[in-house]
Amino acid sequence: MIPYILILLLLCLGLFYELYLPSARQDMISFQHRAVYFFLVSVVALMTGFRDMIGGYDVYIYAWFFDEIPAIDSLFPWSAGDPSVYFRFEPGYLLLNSVIKFFCADAYFYFFTVALLTYFLIGKAFRRYPFFVFAFFLFFAKFFIVGFVYTRQFIAMGIVWWSLRFLEENRKNVFLVFLLLATTIHYSAFVVFPMYFLANRRFSGKFLGIVFVVALVLGVSPFIKWAMASVNHFLMLDKLDGYAEAAQDSFHIPYFIETSLVVAGVLYYRKRIYADKKYIVLLNMLVLYSVFSYLTLRDAGVIRFIWYYFIGYAVLVPVMLFRFVRYKELILLFVLIYFSFVYFRNVIVRDDGNFIPYKAVFMDTHREDKFR
User: Which of 264, 339, 338 is nearest to 294 (CA)?
Assistant: First the structure.
């Protein structure tokens, strides 16, 4: 448990360092600011990459797949291996595994390489906005542990977030190319496709209010379960059917409160955020994140599809807090406590505590794993 505590404290220190930098509030980035951020992202990436098969059942499946896939110089013709293995995951993910295996056939090297790649893309994505340490802290608190498990989706998220720059520059076709690339890593990335049409739209407060209310009403109903079952009926995607089966029986009250606070911020500060061109795409992503959050209030199984929109949340919450809110110190304290709770809950509760204790590949200690 100690490594998990230490890395959270390290991120908190980095956050306080950034918040008391006058340059950060003026969108000016110093060398020290960049160096601190690079250090924090590197530590998180290394702790993820050096983990010793921590991440539940999925990690062992990914390791098995990597062992079965030939290196890129032996991949074709497919008769070189078991053809059924090639269709286990998306084609882009297969090629990524095959390329990595060309350099080293050890599964630990694969997890290390993928961690560096993922955090490089995510780190670069946040780096383009003010308060990027704060944004990365929010991402870390929600997804650090989750990132041990959902390897493919996190690579796809990194590609999508890094390529948002092209939407902001109105180079939509370039963005679409990278979105398709992300989809070949994990098909769920296609959930971001609506941004191709909505990227630079400015929505009225009345319109957004109606959309949020409708999403909330649908979210408290079995709508998502029905929708996922219908999609699976026509597309015959067993994974979607499985996600739909994971519906919750009760209303997720803490998740509702968090989303509602974000929605209130969106509606109240909409005009001021839209006034800055670099935030239009992110605000619309935050809108969709909030809409999908309401829609999934009773369905934990499909909630992972909205993670692609979390970058709008991570970037704009700090902006709203430090640009528009008066009593920011009190709210900051609440944010730190809440997200620290979210972080520790992931560490302790996920897979019934199977992530504890942390063990790196170079640590000579024994670790029980119920999935081993």
Answer: 264
